[in-house]
Write a structure and sequence with these properties.
It contains 6 helices and no strands. It has 127 residues and is mainly α. It has a domain at 68-127.
């Protein structure tokens, strides 16, 4: 009888043990510049630069904008899309970031959505 009780308790103990948990998956966010570069690569755009070039361009632009990094990322993508629909085959996120930053004086912080709007208007007027 004692053997049956020990066997039953052992069987219950084994049955209630949980399987080992897998190691947690750590997801790291890409820097915004690098994420934009991956979007350009995925779209097979011409003139894609290095991850460092994209990160530097985004950092420069971000320091001159009042927009959040998320809003700025969205604005860069929208600007690029509108340029492409307007026929600018050589545009990519890097060129958009460089062009927008060039329009902003160092030390100034502006609403980059408005700057992008002016950039698009000027770009459409060029021959």
């Amino acid at each position: 009888m004692l053997v049956a009780v020990v066997a039953a308790v052992t069987a219950v103990g084994v049955a209630t043990q949980h399987p080992p948990r897998p190691a947690p998956i750590v997801i790291t966010a890409l820097p915004r510049g690098e994420w934009l570069r991956l979007q350009d690569l995925h779209a097979q755009l011409a003139g894609v630069g290095s991850p460092q070039q994209y990160d530097d361009a985004f950092s420069t632009l971000s320091n001159r904008c009042l927009d959040s990094d998320e809003s700025l990322t969205d604005e860069i993508q929208v600007t690029l899309s509108l340029l492409q629909h307007g026929g600018a085959a050589d545009a990519n996120s890097l060129t958009v970031m460089h062009d927008l930053a060039a329009d902003l004086p160092i030390g100034w912080r502006a609403n980059c959505a408005q700057v992008a709007g002016g950039y698009l208007i000027n770009h459409q007027q060029l021959p």
